[in-house]
Amino acid sequence: MTPGDAEIARERPTSAERTGVSVVIATYNGAARVPDVLAALAAQTAPDGSFEVIVVDNNSTDGTAAAVENDPATAALRMRGVEVRVVAEKKQGLTHARIKGICEASRELACFLDDDNLPNHDFIELGQIAFEDLTIGLVVSRVFPSWETTPSHAIMRRQSLFAVNSYLGGAAQEFDMHSPIAPIIGAGLWVRREAFLKAIPWRTPELLLSDRSGDRLISGGDIEIGILIGRAGYRRIYDPGLCLAHRIPASRLETRYMRRLIQGIVRSELTLKEKYLGERVSLRGRLAFVAQLLAAPLVGLWRRDVKRETAFIAAAAIARLKGPFRISK
After folding, report:
1. What pTM was estimated for this model as a whole?
2. CA dihedral 310, 316, 320, 326 (to 10 degrees)
């Protein structure tokens, strides 16, 4: 975060002086994906001009900015009075991109979309209604998987790793204020901008998990946002009426990718538990992980898709042995 970015955030008007939504789309090499997100936003039932779109280009090399500018959906949005702009964030990492988007935002609410998220037509309209209670600082959407190819049984058992949460069901729920770590996912994550700036150390992002960084499969940045906004005293809600689809390409179902994904998520979870709950892995715990690793072939035999089950169980055990990521204090 540069001094210029800090000035941007400080100079924004207070939440009481503006209304509407800033949709922040963080992308890395998303020239082929972002246009579909823009088309979904152009089809929203929200009143014209009630939202803006900020595409944060996180160091892309594929002409993402030009793709956004030249896309027909961009023109359609602007015809509706929706401002669409691309801003650059050179520091790699989804957390850095989200902070950049928040600093550039000019509306009371912000909604984070990934470049493979397709929101329902009433997504923006319903999202604003969800924040009518001023004590609410964060709202989690209901995310459904849109598989390019049918996943195997071993992957379906782990579908939550793909930032989907449709399994939470159709009933709204509030996350316990006394349980800091909640099932929060960044796809379709809504925040009150004022709450974000108050709770998140956006001036010193090196203190946070970087989340997805280029091809590095670190995660947990969304959960950390939820932890900090909850600790700041704001309510955190799951609203199943806010629906979107998460496109999952066949390449993400390959065993090699899945092993990397599992390791990144497990280590990120350990990082958050150590940082916010004070949980450290003991020697006894590490010995248990060794046992899990050795037992992976036997456990896999009891499940379908034996080879993948064995590989995935082993990947999780290896991640636990490696332990948390190290970030600045």
Report:
1. 0.89
2. 140
